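Backbone-to-sequence.
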């Protein structure tokens, strides 16, 4: 027998995160392209990011036929939020010479799956890349990061918005994420968590 799920946050109703999810306005538009393997993931942080941001959209797939329309939005300049040799560090709008806000395209999946999204969508791979000049440590305490500076999708979005739209702060988006992680730790038991996940 399956547990009843909240249709909005996709969590079991007894663990619904909706009361913790804010509804924030942002000048920046966020487009998350989610690999299908992430949709039912217990820690679907991309979903939390999009639920908490009014100016955002989540699309699920591997190849996106309508990608041109999604990334060419009048009044915005589009970029891929993804590290790479050519990636330019994001700077606050207050010091930016270009008056247009960013449309940040964020691939969601493991590094391998995110790279596959780029490979299957040449328009995506052709976008200019932006990255975080300084990466704050991840709060994702349940799995070891594949590399230093690796963040969950939600954390990457929050840190990018905090840089771009300073002094506005988007940390409220992290509240359901923190609750989700605490719930997972409680479910596995503190002793098990400390034995397997503490460094």
């Amino acid at each position: 027998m399956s547990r009843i799920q909240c249709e909005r946050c996709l969590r079991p109703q007894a663990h619904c995160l909706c009361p913790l999810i804010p509804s924030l306005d942002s000048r920046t538009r966020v487009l998350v392209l989610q690999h299908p393997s992430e949709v039912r993931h217990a820690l679907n942080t991309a979903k939390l990011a999009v639920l908490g941001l009014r100016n955002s959209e989540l699309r699920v797939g591997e190849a996106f036929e309508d990608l041109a329309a999604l990334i060419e939005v009048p009044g915005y300049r589009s970029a891929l939020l993804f590290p790479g040799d050519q990636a330019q560090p994001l700077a606050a709008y207050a010091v930016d010479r270009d008056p247009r806000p960013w449309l940040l395209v964020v691939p969601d999946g493991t590094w391998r799956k995110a790279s596959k999204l780029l490979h299957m969508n040449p328009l995506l791979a052709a976008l200019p890349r932006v990255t975080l000049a300084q990466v704050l440590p991840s709060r994702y305490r349940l799995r070891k990061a594949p590399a230093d500076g690796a963040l969950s999708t939600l954390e990457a979005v929050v840190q990018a918005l905090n840089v771009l739209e300073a002094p506005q702060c988007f940390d409220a988006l992290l509240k359901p994420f923190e609750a989700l992680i605490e719930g997972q730790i409680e479910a596995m038991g503190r002793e098990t968590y400390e034995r397997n996940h503490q460094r």
